[in-house]
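Extended Data, record DUF4383 domain-containing protein
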Amino acid sequence: MVHAHGARIRVEGLQPAQVLAALVAVVFLVFGIVGFTRTGFGDFAGHHDAGFWRFSANPMNNLVHVVTGLLGLALAFGSGRARVFGWLLFLGYGVLFVWGLMIAGTITANPFANAGNPLDLTASDNWLHLGIAALGLVIAVLPARRRVRVPEEAADPVTPADTNAVSGTTVERSAPVGGAGTAEDQAAEKRGPGLAH
């Protein structure tokens, strides 16, 4: 194992959370747009017989899908932002799952009974929302691939054995701190740590 003063851990490259967030966002967009072709725009929050397999659809539900898809595509362009999208899916669809259980009568106390059922939720929708919430949690906690950059003068020799296959962390040498370095390294030093990976 390499120990060095001044080593930096960076998240690099396209992360699994970004790919999964983008795929989920595209699926939401497709179902939202196709849903609008099936339900139209009339009776916006009412019941429609046009749905997908066992799942209900109405224009308001389709709008939620389109907005979720657009938000997911916007947030999939960064590792930290993709994880934020995962947390939003987890929280938002977790709340929809619980609200659907209240509407179905599984949970008897429904403080939102006067709101009705504007998304036309059914029992099948509840289980779908639970699955989407779980998928959001997976996106939020997927491990990132990291690379450790070690300054030349501060490191022991780096060998191929320094790659940790369990955590996905790779160790590589970089130019000395304060030295020439790559343009990316210099920009990262100016920017500092943060969500922009």
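Summary. The mean pLDDT is 75.
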